[in-house]
Structure formats: C-alpha cells, structure tokens
C-alpha cells in the first residue's frame, strides 16, 4: 500500500473542535491532539482517543495516526492537510546539512579511497587536517591514481565515474558529519563539563550522589553515541565495498541519520541550556544538573539502577524497574 503524502482524517472527532494540531506531550513524549476549547488549549493523548473511537491500525484513520506518530519524530507538529515529512515518504531528509559538512564527508571518502589504494590510514587526522590534505597538491596525483584503480575494481568507465559516485555517497554522509558536530561533539563536551561541575561540588555529600549518577549517565550517553559514529565510520570507510553496495549503504546511512537526528532533537534544548550558562550561579548550575538527570535517567540508566527514593534511603539492593 502506497504511503499517503498528506495528513487526512475522516472521523468527525478530528473536526469537532476546529483544526487540531498533533504534537508530542513535553512531559511524557506521547503524541497528543491539541484542540481549542474556549480560550484554552487541551491536549488529548492519541492512545485513549483511538480506543474510544475504534481507530485501530487496520482503519484508515488508525493508519494515519500511526504516520502522525512517525512524523512527530521529525517535525514539532502537524495539522490535517499538511504534508508528512519526507523521511517517512521517500527516505529523504527534511533538513539540509551545510556545505562544509559535505566538504568534510567528501574529503573523508577521497582519503579513504587513497588509504585503500596505498594501504595506509588517515583515521587519526582531525577535520582541519583532512580538508587540508585533499587540497594539498602533493596528494592530488595519488588521489587521481586511486580513482583510476577504483574504476577498474568497480568496472566503471573511468575515474570521473568514481568521482561522481563518491559525490553522491558524500551527499548522504554529509548528514552524518553535521550530526557529528551538532550532537556527538556537544554531548562529549557536556560530559566533560559535568565532570568539572562534580569537582566544584566535591565534599558536598548532599549533592554528591546525584552528581555521581549524572556524571555516569552523561559518560554513558557520550560512549553510546561515540560507538554509533565509530560503527558508521567503519561501515562506510570501506569505500570500495560501500560503492559496490550503494543501495544497502544508503539505507544504512539514512537509518542512522534519522536515529541521530531524533536524538539531536531531544538533546538540543538541554545542550543549548548548558551552552548558554557560561557563568551560572550555584542555584542555576544545580537546576541544570537536576534537569540533566531528569533527561538522561530514563534514556541511559540501566533497569537495575532504577530504585525508589524510599528504597535508596533504606540502602536496599537495587530492584528492576521499567525504564520510561
């Protein structure tokens, strides 16, 4: 069945109070339908709404609401008549990386191709070094040789065909480079800053336990994201193999792109709050610490780490608890 391109709902409940807006509830992240009653906005969770009016997944409106839930991973809100984001229609992204992200992705690919050709490695080079290397006249003849060798390996007409394939590949990877800067580097910086905050509050037993937990969670978040980017780099760094399996690689990159973009959308308000608090008071700093704990705990705390406040004060053993 072809995926609809626009949100269209048939049941009368969706027009009874004017045009509804679908969003995620900020407190629980659940999709809700927001309607206006008098001068007030009322948010109705979709799950009970679906049960009340029999809008199961096998009904037209039920299928539309499934798409609404998917769409809210990529947009803040959607109304009837509006187009669904391209991520769920065509697989394309609803946002664009900057030209510098494409330049960096393209540089990585060319140097990966050169590494394959020469049997060398450029893995430890930073971004500025990578960009400088591909512009270095000393590298250009060797990169051109690598293109010609790759053309023979891939049964392509010439080096220009390899260059064209790399450019298309780089357009997909540019999103990953953008998210490396927008998400990974910022979460890594957050984890480092929380360590410094923990040092500032050292000796304060009333805050020490929470700070130790936040530090652990922030490091875990940074580690999980680092591992995902490392996996992406390893999978796409085998350039010849990637170009042979371009459709598989594109799907792999896009699935990771969408996951990382959803993660960035969730993290961004918290990261921005920390970045804008260059010299906070102790009260402001502690408010940020508590906000960070509330954000990280349901996402990165393992099940066995969840204990009630009552049990923690009784120093009982950790008990399993559902992660929310």
Percentage of residues assigned to helices: 55-70%
- Overall pLDDT level: 88
Order of helices and strands: EEEHHHHHHHHHHH
> Distance between termini?
33 Å
Q: Oligomeric state of the chains?
A: single chain
Largest sheet: 3 strands, antiparallel
Principal-axes geometry comes out as flat
β content, as a range? 5-15%
How many beta-strand segments?
Answer: 3
Report the uncertain regions: 313-324
Cα Rg = 24 Å
Structural class label:
mainly alpha
Order of neighbouring strands in the sheet with most strands:
1-2-3
**Tally of separate helices:** 11
Task: Give the helix/strand layout.
Layout: E1 21-24, E2 31-37, E3 40-45, H1 46-52, H2 60-71, H3 99-118, H4 127-135, H5 140-154, H6 159-200, H7 205-237, H8 239-244, H9 246-275, H10 282-300, H11 309-313
Antiparallel strand pairs: 1-2, 2-3
Helix pairs in contact: 3-4, 3-5, 3-6, 5-6, 6-7, 6-9, 7-10, 9-10
Task: Write a structural description.
The chain is mainly α and 324 residues long. It is built from eleven helices and three strands. The chain has helices at residues 46-52, 60-71, 99-118, 127-135, 140-154, 159-200, 205-237, 239-244, 246-275, 282-300, 309-313; strands spanning 21-24, 31-37, 40-45. The protein has a three-stranded antiparallel beta sheet with strand order 1-2-3. Helix 3 (99-118) crosses helix 4 (127-135), helix 5 crosses helix 6 and helix 6 (159-200) runs parallel beside helix 9 (246-275). It is flat and about 70 Å long.
């Amino acid at each position: 069945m072809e995926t609809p391109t626009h949100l269209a709902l048939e049941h009368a409940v969706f027009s009874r109070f004017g045009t509804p807006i679908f969003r995620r509830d900020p407190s629980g992240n659940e999709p809700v339908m927001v309607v206006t009653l008098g001068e007030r906005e009322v948010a109705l969770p979709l799950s009970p709404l679906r049960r009340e009016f029999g809008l199961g997944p096998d009904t037209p409106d039920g299928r539309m609401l499934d798409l609404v839930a998917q769409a809210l991973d990529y947009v803040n809100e959607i109304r009837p008549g509006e187009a669904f984001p391209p991520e769920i229609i065509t697989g394309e992204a609803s946002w664009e990386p900057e030209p510098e992200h494409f330049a960096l992705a393209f540089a990585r690919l060319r140097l990966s191709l050169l590494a394959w050709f020469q049997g060398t490695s450029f893995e430890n080079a930073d971004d500025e070094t990578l960009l400088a290397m591909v512009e270095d006249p000393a590298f250009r003849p060797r990169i051109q040789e690598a293109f010609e060798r790759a053309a023979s390996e891939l049964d392509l007409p010439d080096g220009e065909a390899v260059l064209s394939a790399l450019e298309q590949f780089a357009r997909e990877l540019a999103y990953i480079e953008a998210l490396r800067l927008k998400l990974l580097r910022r979460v890594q910086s957050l984890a480092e800053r929380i360590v410094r905050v923990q040092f500032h509050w050292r000796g304060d037993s009333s805050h020490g336990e929470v700070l130790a937990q936040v530090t652990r969670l922030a490091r875990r978040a940074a580690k999980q994201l680092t591992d995902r980017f490392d996996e992406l780099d390893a999978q796409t760094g085998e350039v010849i193999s990637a170009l042979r399996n371009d459709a598989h690689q594109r799907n792999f990159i896009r699935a990771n792109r969408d996951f990382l973009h959803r993660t960035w959308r969730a993290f961004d308000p918290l990261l921005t709050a920390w970045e804008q608090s260059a010299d906070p008071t102790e009260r402001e700093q502690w408010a940020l610490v508590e906000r960070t704990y509330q954000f990280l705990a349901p996402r990165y705390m393992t099940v066995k780490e969840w204990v009630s406040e009552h049990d923690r004060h009784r120093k009982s053993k950790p008990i399993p608890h559902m992660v929310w």
